[in-house]
Specification:
Blueprint: H1 3-11, E1 16-20, H2 27-42, E2 47-52, H3 59-68, E3 72-74, E4 87-92, E5 111-114, E6 125-128, H4 135-145, H5 152-165, H6 175-185, H7 190-197, H8 203-214, E7 217-219, E8 222-229, H9 235-243, E9 251-258, E10 261-268, H10 275-283, E11 288-291, E12 295-301, H11 312-330
Parallel strand pairs: 1-2, 1-4, 2-3, 4-5, 5-6, 8-9
Antiparallel strand pairs: 7-8, 9-10, 10-12, 11-12
């Protein structure tokens, strides 16, 4: 049985499908969810919903949802508890309950599409390919195999997601990304692609990136920085992307306090460093962290630091000290660095 036949067999008897995005979903996750919803509609599932948890603060992600008019709803725990007969639960761009999502551990999952490193994936249907550059690439293959009508909205969403996830085909892109892009290009709205590529930036994002630039510390080819406390979680990957372009820097890690957690974003072009493994080693015992060789992220609950400071300034100082020390140890760096 082919993967397409296996997916059809899981979907066909169902009456409704709940697609759960990971926390703070990005275009790759959102476009993949949109594509899976279209596939479900094609096999006769009338009730479909896309849920997310966390925040959608990145200006590009907000523009993506608004310009493509994606019907996105906040995560509702009742959607995954005591599901009625004929109701399916799917993950896209993540794979395990409780891992970068608010679905309780042990919840039965029916469908999983993902390209991130993950272990212990259990579902009735799984297409998990770490070698692929974007989950949207995988879903594009299924859109093509199911012979769906490729309208401008779906084609634009998938093409933009592939471009964004691979940084314009410069990070983790494979032959599959180029093949998917070639298939999607003719139907995509190129004007809309340009709009999505150049969204407006909030002043809070600019401030956070400025803090990351000011707080940077460079040790050899590794840059570590923080933004202090920010409301713009998605400023962290933007800062990491920018600082990774600094001359002589091959690995950049940026962290900051967002609400009740410490968030981290990392980038690396050093072939000796698997930055996903580095973050896992550094923070897996106190939070969740990991990712690809070139791109990774993590989250550590702030509660473990709360008893060590009476004010926010002191808290940020302790967070900086502890997080930096863990990164220095995991990356086998010298303790001192130069700004």
């Amino acid at each position: 049985m082919t993967d397409v036949q296996a997916l059809r067999e899981v979907l066909t008897p169902a009456e409704e499908l709940t697609i759960v995005c990971h926390n703070n979903p990005d275009p790759d996750c959102l476009a993949s969810a949109l594509a899976l919803g279209r596939i479900a509609a094609a096999v006769g599932i009338d009730e479909r919903r896309i849920l997310y948890s966390g925040d959608i603060s990145h200006q590009q992600n907000r523009a993506f949802i608004n310009l493509l008019d994606i019907d996105l709803r906040e995560f509702d725990p009742t959607s995954v508890h005591d599901r009625p007969e004929g109701s399916l639960l799917a993950f896209v761009d993540h794979a395990v309950p409780g891992g970068n999502n608010r679905v309780p551990e042990g919840t039965p999952i029916d469908v999983v599409f993902d390209h991130h490193p993950a272990e212990g994936i259990e579902a009735r249907f799984v297409d998990h390919r770490e070698s692929i550059g974007a989950t949207a690439t995988i879903l594009t293959e299924y859109v093509r195999a199911f012979d769906l009508e490729l309208d401008a909205t779906l084609a634009t969403a998938l093409l933009f997601a592939i471009r964004r996830e691979t940084l314009g085909f410069l990070r983790g892109a494979t032959d599959a990304e180029y093949a998917a892009a070639g298939f999607l290009h003719e139907a995509a709205d190129l004007n809309l692609l340009r709009q999505l590529s150049t969204p407006s930036v909030t002043s809070a994002t600019v401030d956070a990136i400025a803090q990351a630039i000011a707080n940077r510390s460079v040790r050899g080819a590794v840059l570590i920085s923080h933004v202090g406390r920010t409301s713009e979680r998605d400023a962290l990957p933007q800062a990491a992307d920018y600082l990774a372009t600094l001359e002589g820097v091959e690995t950049a890690v940026v962290f900051g306090v967002v609400d009740g957690s410490i968030h981290l974003s990392a980038r690396s072009t050093d072939t000796r460093v698997h930055i996903g493994d580095v973050l896992t080693e550094a923070f897996d015992d106190v939070g969740s962290a990991g990712g690809h060789r070139e791109m990774a992220g993590g989250e550590v609950p702030l509660g473990i630091f709360a008893d060590y400071a009476d004010d926010d300034e002191g808290l940020i100082a302790i967070v900086e000290q502890v997080i930096t020390a863990r990164l220095v140890a995991a990356l086998n760096l010298e303790a001192d660095g130069d700004a």
